[in-house]
């Protein structure tokens, strides 16, 4: 089992992540923890790697999330990969639980646990692929008009969090991947610097005949938002660029050019609004 964690100027949450990971399995020695540090200051990631017997990879530049995860996954023969954020806390035995269910489902190319917010609520991490109207409407108006009909419909489709089920895509914050499936589809699309790489991967796995399986019976604590808090402007820009890439590639026919132009214009307006709000 290889666990790949992409880091960028991490805080103390990285040590908590590594400490909890050791307790998440009855065989911690079987876990190959790989930290891929996209940042420029590697003091903390190096210290955590030494303390927890992890391997540290330093690309020398910020590759983005998907490309760094691909780098961390390279060169191994482990049948299972875990790709995850630093801001996770693993309950004891949770990794063993994930693997036990995964072994029962050979059709699953990716599996994701329930992600618990710090207040104990469940973050909807097993989602359907966005339709053009609901996805675009939610993307354009979700923050500035939270109760718009597209956001309400989109969220309603994501709230079946209480049962094990197939999903269109699973959150990249904590993702168990069958190496065979991951490599068969070429891993993460490195054209996404950050955000939507998990949506794209889930869609491609589904098209290749694999199932994305959501497992609410296994829960992992997700603090969330650490990247946004430190770099809100760059995260806002990256989020909107990835949203456009995903939608433009999904609607790439020549006659769909008006759709792409409309999406580009709408996302530009939304990006401007969010950047102004972030400066306040």
CATH top level of the largest domain is: Alpha Beta
Percentage beta strand:
15-25%
Instruction: Output the radius of gyration.
Output: 18 Å
Sequence of secondary-structure elements: EHEHEHEEHEEEHHEEEHHEHHH
Structural summary, described in words:
By secondary structure, the chain is α/β, with parallel strands linked by helices. It folds into two domains: 2-124 and 159-224, Spore Coat Polysaccharide Biosynthesis Protein SpsA, Chain A; 132-158 and 231-280, no CATH class. The chain has eleven helices and twelve strands. The protein has helices spanning 13-23, 43-52, 65-73, 94-103, 132-141, 149-158, 179-184, 197-207, 226-230, 232-250, 257-279, and strands at residues 2-7, 32-37, 55-57, 80-84, 88-89, 108-116, 122-123, 126-127, 165-167, 169-170, 174-178, 211-222. The strands form two sheets. Strands 1, 2, 3, 4, 5, 6, 7, 9, 11 and 12 form a ten-stranded mixed sheet that branches. Strands 8-10 form a two-stranded antiparallel sheet. Helix 1 (13-23) runs parallel beside helix 2 and helix 10 (232-250) packs antiparallel against helix 11 (257-279). The termini are far apart.
